[in-house]
Amino acid sequence: MLLLISPDGVEEALDCAKAAQHLDIVDVKKPDEGSLGANFPWVIREIREAVPADKPVSATVGDVPYKPGTVAQAALGAVVSGATYIKVGLYGCTTPDQGIDVMRAVVRAVKEHNPDALVVASGYADAHRIGCVNPLAVPDIAARSGADAAMLDTAVKDGTRLFDHVPPDVCAEFVRLAHASGRLAALAGSVRQDDLGELTRIGTDIVGVRGAVCEGGDRNAGRIQPHLVAAFRAEMDRHDRERAAGLPAAR
Ligand SMILES: O=C[C@H](O)COP(=O)(O)O
């Protein structure tokens, strides 16, 4: 399982760089603009320069409306700025067809600029609270649009968590659907260390975190701490080892 960490700007990205050996992807976002809030192009560029070259930089394009042209242009901005994972939150898409329209436009805009960049279609585990597409529709949206990964995060960061909205057996189905069409499955949403057993067991490819590696577990007031990134990674590695050894998922 890969570890994606979401700093909110250059300063926190430098803390991620200090913990670079413990993480796999640095994910640029602007949390005060939403769960998948988009940051400025110059911040993506600065973060690309600040983190080791072998660590991919991801950028969120926002909690986007159903406006394929607008979103495609924003996605191009992110990839031009140096991101090689482009994450789109399908906030304003109320049907799978709308999600596919948006993601097809994003895939074209991104891959015409950099065919190796990965496009991530993200839905929301708490979709019922905001009226967007059902979480289990996201793997098919990813597959039919040519995106590389299907993701879930939570839209409302109020302390509720991924498994509060989409229980582990439904997340397992999400992962199964993504893998059936050859996509990666990424899961996030106030994930904590004690979720890692389940996330490992169901075959999650990428886990995304912020709050769990901020001081006090507070994604807003807390700052990312390199020692918390290291501890989170150690727990991931423990579960990976146990899974490889065929032991039952531990808490
Ligand atoms: O992409 C990952 C998100 O930033 C997760 O943030 P969170 O762990 O605070 O919910």
From TrEMBL:
<dbReference type="InterPro" id="IPR007565">
    <property type="entry name" value="4HFCP_synth"/>
</dbReference>
<dbReference type="GO" id="GO:0016829">
    <property type="term" value="F:lyase activity"/>
</dbReference>
<comment type="function">
    <text>Catalyzes the formation of 4-(hydroxymethyl)-2-furancarboxaldehyde phosphate (4-HFC-P) from two molecules of glyceraldehyde-3-P (GA-3-P).</text>
</comment>
<dbReference type="InterPro" id="IPR011060">
    <property type="entry name" value="RibuloseP-bd_barrel"/>
</dbReference>
<protein>
    <recommendedName>
        <fullName>(5-formylfuran-3-yl)methyl phosphate synthase</fullName>
        <ecNumber>4.2.3.153</ecNumber>
    </recommendedName>
</protein>
<keyword id="KW-0704">Schiff base</keyword>
<dbReference type="Pfam" id="PF04476">
    <property type="entry name" value="4HFCP_synth"/>
</dbReference>
<keyword id="KW-0456">Lyase</keyword>
